[in-house]
């Protein structure tokens, strides 16, 4: 005689709101501080602390998001956390990391001074001009090309912080949604 088939346990447990906030704070703060320390380290070693090398630390944010969601699931075992709690801890982690990273960008920009910001503008301008030269398929009028150059020349610390915030947030949210759904199981 065959053994009876057991239905999988699909109970959803109510996770205390404090657990969601605590995990988001722990992982968001940690990932955000790593981003800031990385930018400061780049600046202190003579690299552009605002440049493309930032991405190396920003890639930690999606991992922190997934780790916070994984620990939330572990805290809810043998049941599983609700979708709202699972997504919430991931989104809060990403938001906190992005906010701390953006504030760190502002602090570093003011601390390093205008020469560092001007150097960053020059590097971005060089990248934009190289892309304009190397990409003949992108048909852009001379007016559009000039507008791109002017935007780079008018770049402010606020623009840099906004860009940093959006980069970190998007990187975190890219994994927050699918991991929030699938790590519940």
Automatic annotation (TrEMBL):
The chain crosses the membrane at residues 23-43, 55-72, 84-110, 165-183. Pfam families: DUF4199. It comes from the Bacteria. InterPro entries: DUF4199. The keyword Ribonucleoprotein does not apply. Keywords: Membrane, Transmembrane, Transmembrane helix. The keyword Membrane applies. This is DUF4199 domain-containing protein. It comes from Hymenobacter cyanobacteriorum.
């Amino acid at each position: 005689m065959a053994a009876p088939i057991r239905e999988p346990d699909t109970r959803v447990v109510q996770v205390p709101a404090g657990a969601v906030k605590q995990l988001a704070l722990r992982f968001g703060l940690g990932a955000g501080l790593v981003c800031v320390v990385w930018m400061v380290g780049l600046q202190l070693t003579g690299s552009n602390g605002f440049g493309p090398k930032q991405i190396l630390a920003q890639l930690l944010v999606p991992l922190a998001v997934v780790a916070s969601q994984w620990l939330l699931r572990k805290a809810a075992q043998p049941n599983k956390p609700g979708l709202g709690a699972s997504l919430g801890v991931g989104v809060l982690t990403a938001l906190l990391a992005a906010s701390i990273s953006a504030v760190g960008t502002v602090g570093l920009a003011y601390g390093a001074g205008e020469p560092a910001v001007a150097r960053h503008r020059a590097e971005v301008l060089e990248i934009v001009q190289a892309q304009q030269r190397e990409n003949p398929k992108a048909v852009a009028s001379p007016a559009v090309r000039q507008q791109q150059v002017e935007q780079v020349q008018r770049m402010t610390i606020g623009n840099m912080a906004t860009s940093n915030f959006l980069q970190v947030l998007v990187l975190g949210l890219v994994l927050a949604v699918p991991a929030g759904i699938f790590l519940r199981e």
